[in-house]
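Entry type: protein chain
Record version: 2
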Amino acid sequence: MTIDYLFYIFYSIIQGITEFIPISSSGHLNLLELLYNKGNSRNYLYETTAHFSSLLALIFYLYRQNHLEFNNIKLNFIPITLATIPAIVVGALIILFNISFFSFQIIGYTSIIGGILLYLSDLKIFQVIKISDKKIKFLLAGFFQCLAFLPGFSRSGSCIIAFRLMGENRKNSSVMSLYLGMPIILISFLSNIRDVDVIQFDFNLLIIFIFTFIFAYLTLKLFISYINDIGFKPFVIYRLIFGLIILFLLS
């Protein structure tokens, strides 16, 4: 029982830290499940709790920004809605055809490939897509966001790559990836809760909710505050190392 508590504390910390930065929460959590549960089962109630807590942390963070970000969300409601449509379509097709990307190899390769693309998008020479229409810009980012269905690629990372290629600075790209994250996290929450057979409250749920919220909020504050200064290289290096370790040691 103690081991379970420690695992879910670690699980929650990883979810909170990785959800909004470009290193893939799904890749890390899928890896944890493959190692801990040997990929045999998924606790949808725990996953749902983690997504719900992350969403609340994001809403609380945006609220704390003097309502400025909420006003921006209202102004960008239609572009955000358009950007969500590709993910809904691709997600529906994955469910319809029962497609699974749950493997060590996929996590390893997508971590590396996503890291390389993130690095290239941060170079001015590749920031050549000039789009003034905000709806088209967000829609294009929405197509990039679909890459996150591959565990290890990163939802926030795919959005940041798209916005950087279109010339947005690091902070704006990161903030706009948060905007696109709100409906996607909500959809993930609703999708997972659909698969919950029995809602049974236990201490692990409380652990997941509290630790995920705390670490998601703290990560958001630090990431958005300092990303223009630190850049994406630390995340690129981490992704490359993470992917190589998986491919050489676990696959």
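Comment: The longest helix spans residues 203-230.
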